Amino acid sequence: MKVEALLSEQLGNGAVRCGTCQRRCTIEPGDEGWCKTRRNEDGKLYSLIYGEVSSASVNPIEKKPVLHFHPGSRWLSLGSVGCNFRCPGCQNWKLSHWTRGSTSTRFLSPEDSVTAAKASGCIGLSWTFNEPTIWFEYTLDAAKAAKRAGLHTNYVTNGSITPEALATIAPYLDVFRVDIKGFSADTYERIGNVAEAASILETISQAKTHGMHVELVTNIIPRFNDSANELRSIATWIKDNLGPETPWHVTRFYPHLQLAHLPPTPIADLEAARTIGTEAGLWYVYVGNVPGHPWENTYCHSCGELLIERRALDILANRVEGGRCPTCGERIPGTFE
Ligand code: SF4
Known about the structure:
Elements (H helix, E strand, L loop, with lengths): L2 E2 L3 E5 L2 E4 L7 E2 L10 E4 L2 E4 L4 E2 L1 E6 L13 E6 L13 H4 L9 E2 L2 H10 L4 E4 L8 H13 L3 E6 L5 H7 L5 E5 L5 H8 L5 H12 L3 E8 L7 H14 L6 E5 L14 H13 L5 E4 L9 E2 L6 E6 L2 E5 L19
Parallel strand pairs: 9-11, 11-12, 12-13, 13-14, 14-15, 15-16
Antiparallel strand pairs: 1-6, 2-3, 3-4, 5-6, 7-10, 8-9, 17-18, 18-19
Bound molecules: iron/sulfur cluster (SF4).
């Protein structure tokens, strides 16, 4: 469905500047933005994908991955089409590298998404699979509807959203699960087609300031972002800017698309990344996409007690009591009720 975009600026001669993501595309009449999901029609900017759902599924929140916000809870995950990055190794490339007509969608109103979430026993709505900022107007309306219905909300995002868009949706967003793909503009350009790192990091800080629960993922791609220096810079930035309690997931890359020639990330490299994170002072560094690995588990940052035992998306045991470690009584950062 087509709706007028919420955030745009008239530039004269019919051109508009989109204010949704950090590309801030200048779009001439009849043209589309970089993401192909926004079009200038007669000097007005429109989103072309309001409510257009390409994928819907019920998952545990561990799938995002988010491990410190209601562990084991069910969420309705929704995705549309298009992306503002179109990463060359994207695992959801059929959606993110979408071209018109390549993927079918069906309309789901914000209210119907809430009804579907509640009917399937979910505690929240998660916008994922493609970049949620791309269908900003829809996720905003659905987030408002979710809040009215007592549901939680979650963006699984690359972090390229403008400050004004983030501030608009922040009152209705509980969880910001965001990628840090690298620590330099060069790494971001190679992995994410956007030569920018500082503004992404600034967005993450803003999400924390807005009061969201923030968890971070670095998908470690061999020869792209796996140097010790880059990983140490990321970990140190997280500790200094978001706090040592912020969960950081270092996840295994599996080859896709234009990066199909690369090997999957060696598990030893993920373990080394975890060591870098803990040596930088982070309390919760998880190894992801390696089912059965001991660093999928949650251990108390104070006494080391095994608190939540996991295997992939399943929780085998959860010993957190009232948000605290049962052995030393330390409060565990996050929401565990
Ligand atoms: S959402 Fe981003 S990529 Fe799409 S038109 Fe707006 S600024 Fe450009």
